[in-house]
Amino acid sequence: MGQPVVHFEIMGKDTNKLKSFYSDLFGWKIGETMGPELGHYALIDAESSGLAGGIGQDPQGGVRTTFYVSVPDPKATLEQATAKGGKIVMEPTEIPGANTTLAMFTDPDGNLVGLTKA
Asked: What domain range includes position 97?
């Protein structure tokens, strides 16, 4: 079995607008919006959406959808991705208080992919 997709996120310009859109459209249960230090992020309940996710505001005002793959070693996976033509966007970073490490890269066509080790 390959490495599983364990999380997705939808980043945009207005978290509350996106929360309303997706909860109304798909019936997703979305938690309270966190403060600006956490990107105005809100967690999407996995039972309502089929997969744990989040909605937030991109710090640069951009829009993107990203999926996160659980891997045993994010640094090694980044090295493999760059060897195959990918580019590192975020080195492995510990998320305070979450017992989680995140990293990000783009594939050769520029698609953003997240890595997580929990």
From this structure: 77-118
Q: What is the mean pLDDT of the chain?
A: 94
pTM over 0.85: yes
3-class state of residue 48 by DSSP: helix
| Average pLDDT value for residue range 11-31 | 95
* Two structure tokens written together for 100: 């989680």
Of 91, 75, 83, 76, residue with least CA distance to 107 = 83
CATH classification at residue 8:
3.10.180.10
Could you report the per-residue pLDDT of 45-88, keeping only the tens digit for each?
Answer: 999 999 999 999 988 888 999 999 999 999 999 999 999 999 99
Q: Is 36 helix (H, G, I), strand (E, B) or coil?
A: helix
Indicate left, alpha or beta for 36 from its phi (over 0: left) and psi (-120 to 50: alpha): alpha
**Could you give the number of structural domains in the chain?**
2
- 3-class secondary structure, 58: coil
